[in-house]
Amino acid sequence: DSLQSVIMEGTIRMQNFEIPLKRSISNNLGQRLDFTVGGLACYIIVTQTAGWNYMPFYGISKPTPMKPEEFEMYTYYNDLQGPLYKYREKGNIVNFEGTETAVEKILYKLLVKLRSGSHVLLYIDSCTYLTQKAIFTFQANGKEVKVEHLYANYQPNGQGYIFPGVMSVGPGRAFVADIRVNTPLDPALFSVNSTN
């Protein structure tokens, strides 16, 4: 319960682009991603009840509500403690699904059914107990969709916490340069009305 906020700064690389990125998360309150594309300031805001995208480089001139499946994947990261910590209190169900060997590591496979009804399959290093991969499964337009996130290069941040330095989602890879924890975050940061 000691981790209440995280601010990560770095870059995300997609195809031939490198985009500066800042992600601010307040535990179980909300998160905000700020980035710039083609000189245009963009953001993603996700609270516990709604999410919005503002991406003017797509010609979108105002924040637009997220699709339910996109919102659900983002809200997973609003819980800084993770789905396993006090999982029963959170209404999550965890099942051990066996092991898998990858790159000379034995990974525990834990299937977490979230209170929302979606699932995430976590691959956890049997030596370090750090998550190496997460596969999210949810419904979108009546079909099952899977999204894979990879985590690597874990480093201590100097404040007693360990975070991945590289995260891969789809075609993009995020490289973290700086992480600050428990910095007070103004709740207005997660309000669309206070932005633009």
Can you characterise this structure?
This protein has 196 residues and is mostly beta strands. The protein contains one helix and 13 strands. The model has no long low-confidence stretch (mean pLDDT 91).
Which shape, going by the Cα principal axes?
A: globular
Fraction of residues in H or I helices: under 10%
- Find the structural class using helix and strand composition: mainly beta
Oligomeric state, counting identical vs distinct chains: single chain
Largest sheet: 13 strands, antiparallel
Separate helix tally:
1
Low-confidence stretches: none
Count the E strands: 13
Identify the strand order in the major beta sheet. 6-5-4-3-2-1-13-12-11-10-9-8-7
Instruction: Name the average pLDDT.
Output: 91
Write the H/E string, N to C.
EEEEEEHEEEEEEE
Beta content comes to: over 45%
In summary, what is this structure?
With 196 residues, the chain is mainly beta.
Keywords, separated by commas or semicolons:
13-stranded antiparallel beta sheet, 5% helix, 196 residues, single chain, 1 helix, mainly beta
Protein topology:
Layout: E1 5-14, E2 17-26, E3 30-37, E4 40-47, E5 51-54, E6 64-65, H1 68-76, E7 93-102, E8 105-113, E9 119-125, E10 131-140, E11 143-156, E12 162-169, E13 172-181
Antiparallel strand pairs: 1-2, 1-13, 2-3, 3-4, 4-5, 5-6, 7-8, 8-9, 9-10, 10-11, 11-12, 12-13
